[in-house]
Design goal:
Elements lengths: L6 H34 L5 E9 L2 E9 L7 E7 L14 H9 L2 E6 L16 H16 L4 E11 L6 H7 L5 E4 L5 H15 L4 H19 L4 H7 L9 H10 L15 E9 L5 H12 L4 E11 L5 H4 L2 H10 L9 H12 L1
Parallel strand pairs: 3-4, 3-5, 5-6, 6-7, 7-8
Antiparallel strand pairs: 1-2, 2-4
Length: about 350
């Protein structure tokens, strides 16, 4: 008979077993969570990188297509909002692309110039430049045998509201999905300023000072002031403004969609608005869209009471922790209830 191991040795062995099983448990949990993240961030569509020639340079794009076995599909062309946006919008577009695929539509998007290694600089662009870019992408798509050239439309958010009507004036489109678009650049800026001040609980004195600063900037823009003049007028404090951004604003601050919207008459338009939008005055946007399009167009307005400007649920967007965890474990749940289904249904009925 073997002698019984000393107590210290038995405790040490027990401690090793506990440590091993704890490690195994942790690895199993980690593997399960990783698998869940991968599963939730896998989408029912095929995705490929594409290159589109435009203006002597290349647009680096992503084309997604449904897995339905059809040889041709309609196409949703994505027009970005403001900022340095890549083709997938950091994967934020993918739940929408999946919804498009469920409706039988492919989706096309591209890196903004200067983003993710793409040539050029998006801050050099006017709204007309952006419209030319989108029109070139549509021409490229129409030449593909897997795209139905009679069923190509636009999806665009925020700043894209100034771009998409210009695209429709350059080339035929079958539909437009306008998400949180503004009408007038300067009016939007003032609305956003006041909304943010209210949200911050700003004092009357601070509000008055910010309005005066905004009025100064408007005067500088009207007289085509340089960036150096802007910095001087701000007392030497650029407050995050760069020369490139100032140039972009100077190019585009007169943007107003009112007249251009007439190019959308006669085609289906889905106007998507969020009740918690502090960037865009949705009441003004809806009023202008109805005035211009109701008489000679096919306008559908969708409003989402729990949504922010980005059409994310307000409760999620307000919490960085919830935003991160939802993006990882349930990305389709980021969006306002009904948002993805409504766009899918609109595509099914539009053409």
């Amino acid at each position: 008979m073997c002698p019984t191991p000393p107590l210290r040795l038995r405790l040490r062995r027990r401690g090793v077993r506990i440590a091993v099983w704890s490690l195994v448990t942790a690895l199993v949990v980690a593997a399960g969570l990783t698998g869940m993240v991968l599963w939730q961030n896998s989408y029912d569509m095929d995705e490929q990188r594409v290159s589109i020639r435009h203006g002597g340079h290349t647009l680096n794009g992503v084309l997604t297509t449904p897995r339905d076995g059809r040889k041709q599909h309609g196409l949703v062309v994505y027009v970005h909002g403001d900022g340095p946006v890549d083709a997938t919008h950091d994967d934020g577009y993918k739940p929408m692309w999946e919804a498009n695929a469920q409706a039988g539509y492919a989706s096309l998007s591209w890196d903004k110039p200067g983003v993710a290694g793409a040539p050029g600089d998006w801050l050099d662009q006017s709204m007309d430049d952006r419209a030319d870019e989108a029109a070139a992408a549509i021409a490229w798509a129409r030449a593909r045998p897997d795209i139905d050239g009679e069923r190509i439309g636009l999806w665009g958010a925020s700043q894209a509201g100034w771009v998409m009507p210009k695209v429709a004036a350059k080339t035929p489109v079958s539909f437009v999905i306008a998400v949180s678009p503004a009408i007038n650049w300067l009016q939007q800026g003032r609305y956003n300023l006041l909304a943010e001040l209210r949200a911050d609980g700003a004092s009357a004195e601070r509000t008055e000072a910010e309005i005066a600063r905004s009025d100064t900037i408007r005067r500088l823009l009207r007289r085509h002031a340089t960036f150096e003049e802007y910095v001087g007028a701000m007392g030497g404090d650029a407050d995050g403004m760069t020369a490139e951004r100032w140039g972009f604003i100077s190019k585009n601050y007169t943007a107003d969609a009112t007249r251009d919207l007439r190019a959308l008459r006669g085609i289906p338009v889905l106007l998507t608005l969020a009740d918690h939008d502090i960037n865009v005055d949705i009441t003004d946007t809806e009023r202008v869209y109805r005035r211009v399009l109701d008489a000679g167009g096919d306008l559908t307005v969708g409003r989402y009471p729990d949504a922010t400007h980005s059409l994310l649920k307000q409760s999620i967007e307000q919490s960085d922790l919830r935003l991160t965890f939802t993006a990882l474990f349930s990305p389709r749940s980021l969006f306002a209830d009904g948002f993805l289904d409504d766009q899918r249904q609109f595509l099914e009925e539009a053409t």
